[in-house]
Amino acid sequence: MNAHLRTALGLAGRGVPVLPLRAGKVPFGNCPACRNNACGGRPNMKSSGTCACPRPCHAWAAATTAPATLAGPAWATAWEQAQTVAYHPGGIGLTVVDLDHAAAIAWARETLPATRTVPTTRGEHWIYQGAMQSTNAVRDGVDIKSTMVYARWLGPGTGTMTALPDVVRALVVKKPSPVRPVTAPMPAGGGGCRHRTPAYLERGIAMAEQRITEAAGGVHATVYRTFLAVLSAHGRCGCLTDAHAARLFAAAQTKGETARHCADAWSNARTALGM
Fold first, then answer.
1. What is the rounded CA–CA span in Å between residue 146 and residue 134?
2. Are the C-beta atoms of 89 and 133 separated by less than 8 Å?
3. Cα dist. 253→93, 144, 257, 263 in Å?
4. % of the chain surpassing 70 pLDDT
5. Could you report the per-residue pLDDT of 255-268, keeping only the tens digit for each?
6. Measuring CA to CA, which of 22, 86, 88, 240 is 20 to 30 A from 156?
7. Which three-class secondary structure state does DSSP give residue 155?
């Protein structure tokens, strides 16, 4: 049996959701049915999402603890080509503070509570008990890896794991990142406006923002479905503007979505509706 698959099965047996990574520490590319998120994405690591693809093509969302999936024929080629094993920290209630160089490690030793550490190629992973929003570059050489991301499995590490401290949570408490401009123009008018008053459109946008904001899980899929619903109801008459889209993008980014995911979901929703 492939050594990486053996490692993955051992971790899965302990309840750790895992997936293979190819050269360059990157996930395997989306299969044709899922490329560019055409399937709507998988909201979590379980197979109950909107995409039923069995292959490891959705990065962190493909992580699983199911031996039948890991060792099944759909993943056989992936394990043959895999260079390492990754896991989903947030899926087991963990947060990894990824320290990329010596200066970042020195900062952590002065600032953060001691916890379990794992050496990496250039630095260290500090692992805390507790999940949180993942964010890259919270400071020079420091990334937070927890929900909706994967981290390389580099061994169990040393030291006693401690509870996720407020000082780590505070690293990502900031204003949402700037909204990426909508890459495609809004549909031109001509479809006939069904809106009784301007308040009808405003109410629809506000409800869409609320739906995204209140999503307790499956944020990626919720964002896609919400964009699809908004464009279906308001996208053809010319009333929907870039300002409305920006509000929806901001709501999604506040929930942890990246600007790129927002733009992709918006584009995919428009394609699905033939816009």
1. 5
2. no
3. 22, 16, 4, 11
4. 85
5. 888 877 788 888 88
6. 22
7. coil
Which is nearest to 223 in space by CA: 236, 243, 233, 208? 208
Q: How far apart are CA 275 and CA 269, in angstroms?
A: 9
At residue 39's C-alpha, the angle toward residues 203 and 242, to 5°, is: 35
State pLDDT tens for residues 18-28. 999 998 888 88
* Residues in the chain where the model's pLDDT stays below 50: 43-49, 175-191
Lookup result for tokens 């994405």 = 41
- CA nearest neighbour of 154 among 112, 128, 114, 121: 121
Six token digits for residue 168: 């780590």
Q: Which of 90, 87, 95, 40 is nearest to 59 (CA)?
A: 87
Give the integer Cα–Cα distance in Å for 250 and 234: 19
DSSP assignment, residue 30?
A: P
pLDDT of residue 7: 96
CA-based nearest residue to 143, from 188, 195, 97, 187: 97
Q: Characterize the bridge pairing of strands 116-119 and 124-129.
A: antiparallel
Q: How many CB atoms lie within 10 A of CB 235?
A: 21
| Cα dihedral: 98, 101, 107, 108 (round 10) | 30
> For 35-101, where are the alpha helices, taking DSSP H only?
67-70, 76-81
User: Read out DSSP for 58-74?
Assistant: SGGGG-B--HHHHTSGG
Q: Which two tokens stand for residue 88?
A: 């989903």
Q: What's the mean per-residue pLDDT of the chain?
A: 83
- Half-sphere exposure at residue 216, Cβ-oriented, CA atoms within 13 angstroms: 0
